[in-house]
Amino acid sequence: MALGRAFSVAVTGVTGQLVEIEADIGQGLPSVHLVGLPDTTLHESRDRVRAAVQNSGEKWPDGRVILALSPATLPKVGSVYDLALAIAVLDAAGAVPSARLAGAVLLGELALDGRVRRVRGILPAVLAARAAGRDTVVVPEAALPEAGLVDGIRVLGTRTLRELIDWVRGDGALLVPAAAPPPAERVCADLDEVVGQDEARWALEVAAAGGHHLLLTGPPGIGKTMLAQRLPGLLPLLSPTEALEVTAIHSVAGTLPGDDPLITVPPFVAPHHSTSVTAMVGGGSGSARPGAVSRAHRGVLFLDEAAEIGTKVLESLRTPLEEGEIRIARRDGVACYPARFQLILAANPCPCAPARDVDCICAPLARRRYLGKLSGPLMDRIDIWVQMHGQASGTFAATEVESSATVRARVAVARAAAAARWGEFGWATNAEVPGHILRRRQRLPREAVTPIESALRLGRISARGADRAVRLAWTICDLRGGEVPGAEDVLQALNFRQRGGTS
Length: 503
Fold this sequence. Notes:
four-stranded mixed β-sheet; alpha/beta; Rossmann fold
């Protein structure tokens, strides 16, 4: 009996777990058996691995080969294990020494001719290998820039199984990651391209400063989409920790660029209004994939034509908006993805959407039903509601318009003030602060909360809405450089929460 051993990583959500692959070569008819809850893709790897080994100039064992993946109770999904399976078999056959395999993790899919192909989830897999105490990880050549983002572990790349076999035997060297390129200059649409709409521009600045959610309503062509697309340009760049977190999600989703994979600019995700619940929150058969809410993590999720989106899709946003994460249960387990994003909704006021309200031909019931898809519980989670109107004469003659850089500087100052206030609790923006902390640790003056108490007594806002108004007041206070929100800040925050044209 001959035994071989190699290591790989199973990725669930954005977390990985080390997987030990054991190969046993025994007597019996030539065959390959996989145990350890493999999925269909992994079952098919038997033929891929055998063909790759033979086409790399090595001999496949003649006996009965059993491949066990541990822990046995963890479902194994995908083709990431191909490289480790091939080396484990060769180790069991005595074709390669095991000295370099003890501390190495092997990731990659094999082609029939022995080429090593890129797979999804390389970054979280390398992070898991480092956390497990491994000293070396071998990845496909195409994934070297992505794997090289992780410090504290030696990253090597291989083009073919032949190169890896030579390295294990000590006869050759593998590729190493190139030096990281300098940070690319931020390229975002600029706010100075938007003409007029002073109220909406101010609302966008407040949303950027505090991380608040925003609803824009108005007729077509008025600038709702233009404003939403310029929000990422007002947000600060991601911190190193946030950049790795966001990049890991996009690695699992398979949406990373090849040459410069590190995502440093807040992502902007804008799914089509016909999107499904699965595409929005994530899912799929077998192992759950991240959806739009997770790909927008630490960035902006923009839903244009919000009133045309299915009700179930809109209601599926409630949990991630409240908790900042999404948990998806599927056949192969429960995947948890972070989903802390800024939601920007844009909608027309009615189905016919005329340029002027007086030209509307919709029946009153149809008008109410149109925006009625935006349910009360969902709207209660939106901090700022803005109804946009047509421009007055002479607006296009104006030339003095603030750029994104100018507004971004004010946003940075306001965010720094919020981070200094809430940093000891682990929160970076006002929108993240729970209501009980607002009421106990940072109580507003009595005269400032009087308008909120009046709105609560009259039933104009809910308790959740009151907390959100207080958060919004703190952001407005930070933007003007104040110490504590006053009555004017609170009144402006409440004014931002008036439904206006959405009723």
